[in-house]
From TrEMBL:
Signal peptide (residue range): none
A Pfam entry, by short name: SnoaL_2
Domain SnoaL-like: 8-110
Protein name: Polyketide cyclase
Family matches, as InterPro entries: NTF2-like_dom_sf, SnoaL-like
Length: 123
């Protein structure tokens, strides 16, 4: 497994962690203190805001999990990857996205730039 694939798997594990305390610990281990996360719905910085965003998504989509969607590609300190939010018991993805992450020399994420390719319809 490549370093970039390992980083993506650790990143997705943060989003899938059901225990709030373990989730906060995982964020602190994976992200730099001043890490940023930006997608069409959020522009945040720091561990506290990252934890709050992940928790909000988990609360909005209970019984769902994030999985890699396609190949992981990276070079130097940049990695790009697709992901899908799917029902834990299986079924069609409710959200599909694509992220680009920048990491430091220690393998900690400094920034994530996210894009949403499929989102649930709102009425």
């Amino acid at each position: 497994m490549s370093t970039h694939t390992d980083l993506v798997d650790r990143y997705l594990a943060v989003w899938n962690e059901p225990d709030a305390e373990r989730r906060a610990t995982a964020v602190a281990a994976l992200f730099t203190t001043d890490a940023s996360y930006t997608d069409p719905l959020a522009a945040i910085r720091g561990h506290e805001e990252i934890v709050a965003t992940v928790t909000g998504v988990r609360d909005a989509f209970p019984e769902h999990e994030f999985r890699r969607h396609g190949d992981v590609d990276g070079h130097h300190d940049v990695v790009r990857f697709g992901w899908a939010l799917v029902p834990a018991e299986g079924g069609e993805a409710v959200v599909i996205g694509f992220d680009v992450a920048v990491h430091d020399s220690d393998g900690r994420i400094r920034a994530v730039h996210g894009f949403l390719d499929k989102v649930p319809a709102t009425t």
